[in-house]
Design a protein that fits this description.
Strand content: 15-25%
Shape: globular
Structural class: alpha/beta
Radius of gyration: 15 Å
CATH superfamily: Flavin prenyltransferase-like
Number of domains: 1
Number of strands: 8
CATH class: Alpha Beta
CATH architecture: 3-Layer(aba) Sandwich
Order of helices and strands: EHEHEHEHHEHHEEEH
Largest sheet: 6 strands, parallel
Length: about 180
């Protein structure tokens, strides 16, 4: 029996974090193993319990959780075991950290330590997304091999409509499957 492909799903502090639940469900339907790494800001939008219940896996929220004592390095273990790193939703903050090699939380450490393919799915306010600095950061990551699934036009949490709405779950899952199968 073939080993299940392991997708590390990074969830960041965006209102679109609730979409992670459906992404997990669909990836599992396609035979993937999904491990979730959340930023502390993501926990304001969706709970680790929800994502753990759907994935059937431990959700990682801290760089050094008490359970890893006396030994353990979740950022290295996850990075090594990943067949693909999917960050959905990806905030401007996380994109900026990755573009500049800043690893100050578990997700950014995993992203910098893994050699697995990376898919980044931005979700943010239109003005934030179109900001030249954010666009430069995206281009830098693309140049270094990250794949992006661009945000779509849609209603945003701030009450406006524009590009910044997270891409459809079907599009995201299709991209993952194309890389892993």
């Amino acid at each position: 029996m073939a080993k299940k492909k392991r997708v590390i799903l990074g969830v960041t502090g965006s209102i679109a974090a609730y979409k992670a639940a459906e992404i997990i469900r669909r990836l599992i339907e396609h035979g993937m193993r999904v491990s979730v790494v959340m930023t502390k800001e993501a926990e304001y939008f969706i709970t680790p319990l929800t994502l753990a219940s759907l994935s059937g896996e431990t959700v990682f929220c801290e760089m050094f959780p008490p359970s890893c004592v006396p030994a353990g390095m979740p950022h290295i273990d996850l990075a090594r075991e990943a067949d693909l790193l999917l960050i959905a939703p990806a905030t401007a903050n996380t994109i900026g950290k990755l573009a500049h090699g800043i690893a100050d939380d578990l997700l950014t450490c995993v992203a910098l330590a893994t050699e697995a393919p990376k898919i980044i799915v931005p979700a943010m306010n239109t003005q934030m997304y179109r900001n030249p600095i954010v666009q430069e950061n995206c281009q830098k990551l693309k140049k270094n091999g990250a794949r992006f699934i661009e945000p779509i036009e849609g209603k945003l949490a701030c009450g406006t409509t524009g590009q910044g709405h997270i891409a459809d779950e079907t599009t995201i899952v299709k991209a993952v499957l194309q890389i892993l199968k």
